[in-house]
Amino acid sequence: MKARVHITLKNGVLDPQGKAIQHALDALGFEGVDDVRQGKYIELDLAETDRATAEANVEEMCKKLLSNMVIENYAIDIE
Amino acid sequence: MKSAVVTFPASNCDRDMFDALEKITGQTPHRIWHQDCEIPDVDVIALPGGFSFGDYLRCGAMAARSPAIKAIRDHADRGGNVIGVCNGFQVLTEMGLLPGALMRNASLKFVCKTVQLKVENADSTFTNAYGKGDVIDIPVAHHDGNYFADADTLAELEDTGRIAFRYVNSSGEATAEANPNGSQHNIAGIMNKRGNILGMMPHPERLIEDAQGGTDGRGFFESIINTLN
Lengths: 79, 229
Hints:
The structure holds 2 protein chains of 2 kinds. Chain A is α+β, with helices and mostly antiparallel strands. Chain A is built from 2 helices and 3 strands, in the order βαβαβ. Chain A has a single domain (about 1-80), classed as Phosphoribosylformylglycinamidine synthase subunit PurS (Mth169, Chain: A, 2-Layer Sandwich). Helices cover about 35% and strands about 25% of the residues of chain A. The mean pLDDT of chain A is about 95. Chain B has one domain (about 5-229): Class I glutamine amidotransferase (GATase) domain (Rossmann fold, 3-Layer(aba) Sandwich), CATH 3.40.50.880. Chain B has a 9-stranded mixed β-sheet, sandwiched between helices. A two-stranded antiparallel sheet of chain B has the order 5-8. The interface of A and B includes residues 12, 14, 16, 17 and 68 of A.
């Protein structure tokens, strides 16, 4: 079973890297990019075969290590 | 004063911290490896600067899950003093012992220079050798020192005197120009509610003798000694 985790910055948390990417896109001539927020994508290969258990496990992983709840949100996709 | 310095893989200021503690306290600190599960009974545990675990995932995230962390947490829970400098500050926030987070510098650049800090609270365990409002020189060297916390946390830190140091100009004003990394409220160092844990991005251990160009960092260590006496 595979889990895909997206880690994104919470609303209101400044993202200087996203801003730099936005400026670079602008410099390359890509117009109309109003905002850029960057984050992380993590893929996990799991031995677990039960979907609900896998999701619960990955949620614990997100809370304990994969994301910093002070500044980040996480979204889990299991397949 | 008995002390211990914890070294993680890719810590690189641990010897400076060790040296500063040894010279100022006159006692040899214990060296703790991140896989050690026990830390001797000491007055202060120091988490040094560096790039533990290559800053993988987030700065300090891996170090904050090391085997030695439980002993550090137990020491702090007993009221023992803990100091975290630079990467050590990042580890303390990742452990949840201090609020907020250290993010990428607003400039996106690594900042390595001497900055001015204002002593905002001179009554604490870590600052009592200074005078309130003193402006001191301390070096910074970091890529991720941009302090972030939500509005409620910032208000609480301000209202309870838990901001130890703030980035200022030579006149003592907390201006945007004097802020090397974009930290909210120009915050350079904070304490926990109980007052036994301090984290700061600047490096007091790098300015403790004339050979280093100044001694403004000594007061930080002398404050802890004063408190213990």
